[in-house]
Amino acid sequence: MSTITYLEAIREAQYEALRDNPDVFLYGQDIATFGGAFKATKNLGREFPGRVFDSPISEDAMIGMAIGAAVEGARPIVEMQFADFSSVGFNQIVNQAATLYWRTNTPCPITIRLPSGGTAGSGPFHSQSMESIYAHYPGLVILTPATVEDAYWMLLDSVKLDDPVIFCEHKFLYYHLKADGFGQGMPIGKARIARPGRDATVVTYSAMLHESLKAAEELRLDGYEVEVVDLRSVKPMDTDTILASVARTGRLLVVGESFPWGGATSEVVARVASEAFHLLDAPPMRLNSKDTPIPYHPNLWKAHRPTTASISAELRKLLRY
Amino acid sequence: MTSADKIVTPAFDESTEELRHDFLKALRCMILSRTLEEKLSSLYRAGGRIVGGVYLGRGQEAFSAAAGIQLRWGKDIFGPLIRDQAGRIAYGEPVIDTMRTYLGVVTGPMRGRDGNIHRGQPKQGYMAMISHLGSLLSVVAGALFARRLHGTLGDTAGATSIGDGGTSTGAFHEGLNLAAVEKLPLVVSVANNQYAYSTPTHRQYACEDLVQRAVGYGVGGHSVDGTDLLACVRIFRTAFQQARAGAGPQMVVGRLLRLGGHGEHDDASYVPNLQKHTHEGRDCLLVAQNQALELAWATPQDLEKWHKEARTEVDQALALVTKEPVPDPYRENWRALSTSGLVEGQEP
Q1: CATH code of the domain in which A134 resides
Q2: Residues A175, A97 share a domain
Q3: Contact status, residue B148 vs residue B158, Cβ threshold 8 Å
Q4: Domain end: A150, A179, A208, which one?
């Protein structure tokens, strides 16, 4: 019986990070007494007095503060209440945290948790996926866990890393996704074959993994074996695993929830096109959200993001080519 | 008496000997800073040696040095800004590090990866500014926060600087508010030098005096004539003492005039000639030297000796750095992450 949710995994990882390393502290809006907008830090303030802090609504200063603390040997985990609000801390992330090691030879071990992605009714400013924006900048590690196991292990690994990590945890998975336990962790930077196949490859990450797996199952009924690759980490990107999969299938669809102009999905297509053009039997395809702000009403929202149905439709086009 | 003056905290009781010591230490830093910056300026104008721009603190040395001498290298946290050459020297940064960074040699703290005023050694508590104004305030606050968390704060103080223009940024507001909420031992120097690049203060803020903002942030507010070294030394002694004693952040606003352009590429033609002859426009170094002579804390011979020593130190630094290697792109490791195994396209 599945008992642990994706959200509980994130809470548990923070619990263990706090328990195992006195240098770890948590900083974010409403996280101490209240336990966070999503309860990802529930009870942690009580269990670790003086280690979990409510911050002012100041995303810029929150990140800057974490950077200064990291320079002094602390390992802060900063919760952005929603990934969308990290845009207010953007400068500190991309110009201060991401450049620190390069410029000064000083590691910057901070973990910034970004509750990411869409849920019905959340609208334009509580639904964004920011991984592609941050992946563009050198000096950051961008993690996009899609499973309970990865949410747990990758968050623990993030805290141990000596580099700034943008931890994109998907809100849609918080309560829906469950597992029996945390299983075995996989190294950061390695993609995972979530479902083996031979007819086409879907490369995806985060919540879109689950839509893609369902689409692959639909196509199985038509006799197609679709391989699904979970990137796990958008940056670094495990190009080898992607290329090996394309070598097996000859066809590629890349699925992401973020906006369609550029980004992680484009990066996958660009790498495959330039490094494995000869392995392709069809033009590589991408599926992202629509190029509008994220809509509020569920009817619009479901049509804005890729879904099992739209992924299946794209796969059929790819397989017919 | 302006409303700003009412906010000024009275100076604490100090012995004249301590004041004299601090004054003379700051003065010697000012002399060294001015000498170094004149050399940098002439190197820039001659062309070929300095890569990129040169940004000087001429006219702000008294205000900067008076803060810097209150800081202990390796103990206190310092996040200086553009016009803090004097404060950096006072804090303990060797002149050669400035020269190495301006010339971009690999022996410098930035190894050619960043230049001029963007230098620091964060592991020593010496933060390296980025160009985005106000964003270093929260970083210095974070370093203090971590020390408190680790139980190693002791009598540590942090200091950072900003100009009149930088106080308009969101980062400055967020950072100072956060530091105030956390009641951190932080001293924020606001050098009101009348121009943010070319923009005069009446296009920058609408309050009467920037020190009024201290009340709104819930921090200590201090106002000082930034051209008067004796006054600056006094005010920063007070501000640091209060910060170290647990009174929370202290904001010190210095009234002065930037004696030059934003950088050496800028002739500052937008500064009216008349303004250069106001009280704010007087040269703080000349004022300080006269103060030293009037107080009989130094003789003309002392001053001449200190200038000569400064010239020698600067010339020796330049001579040494000139022979040092510039970066080689083929030897650069091109790694922006400290975890080598996560760098794309490279073997760990």
Answers
A1: 3.40.50.970
A2: yes
A3: no
A4: A179
Reported ipTM: the value is 0.96
Q: Determine the pLDDT at residue B4.
A: 42
Q: In this structure, what CATH number is given to the domain that contains residue A214?
A: 3.40.50.920
Q: Is A22 a domain residue? A: yes
pLDDT in tens, B215-237: 999 999 999 999 999 999 999 99
Which B-chain residues 177-196 have CB contacts (< 8 A) with chain A?
177-178, 181
Question: Does pLDDT of A1 surpass 70?
Answer: no
- In A, minimum Cα distance to B76 occurs at A72
B-chain CB neighbours of A98 within 8 Å are 336
How many Å apart are CA A235 and CA A252, to the nearest integer?
19
Q: A167 and A209 share a domain?
A: no
- Looking at the complex, report in whole angstroms how far the Cα of residue A253 sits from the nearest Cα belonging to chain B: 22
Residue B285, min C-alpha distance to chain A (Å): 32
Show the tokens assigned to B158: 């942090």
Q: Which of A65, A101, A102 is closest, CB to CB, to B142? A: A65
CA A131 to each of CA A84, A86, A175, B279, B330: distance values in angstroms, whole numbers, following the listed order: 11, 11, 21, 53, 31
Closest CB from A66, A103, A239 relative to B113: A103
Q: Which residue, among B182, B135, B246, has the nearest Cα to A54 in the 3D structure?
A: B182
Q: How far apart are CA A242 and CA A264, in angstroms?
A: 13
Chain segment B157-211, per-residue pLDDT in tens: 999 999 999 999 999 999 999 999 999 999 999 999 999 999 999 999 999 999 9
Same domain? A33 vs A175: yes
A132 lies in the same domain as A198: no
Measure the CA–CA gap between A79 and A76, rounded to whole angstroms.
10
Give a yes or no: residue A186 inside a domain.
no
Among A205, A210, A199, which Cα is nearest to A234's? A205
> A55–B178: do the CB atoms touch at under 8 Å?
yes
Looking at the domain assignment, is residue A298 inside a domain? Answer: yes
Q: Residue A304 catalytic?
A: no
Same domain, A48 and A170: yes
Clarify whether residues A174 and A284 are in a common domain. Answer: no
Outline where DSSP puts E strands in A186-298.
192-195, 200-204, 226-230, 233-235, 252-255, 285-287
Check if CATH label 3.30.2010.30 holds for domain B3-324: no
Domain extents for chain B? 3-324
Domain with A104, as residue range(s), is: 4-179
Residue B275, pLDDT above cutoff 50: yes
Instruction: Please tell me which of the candidates A74, A141, A237 has its beta carbon nearest to residue B337.
Output: A141
Interface test with B, best of A55, A60, A159 (most B CBs within 10 A): A60
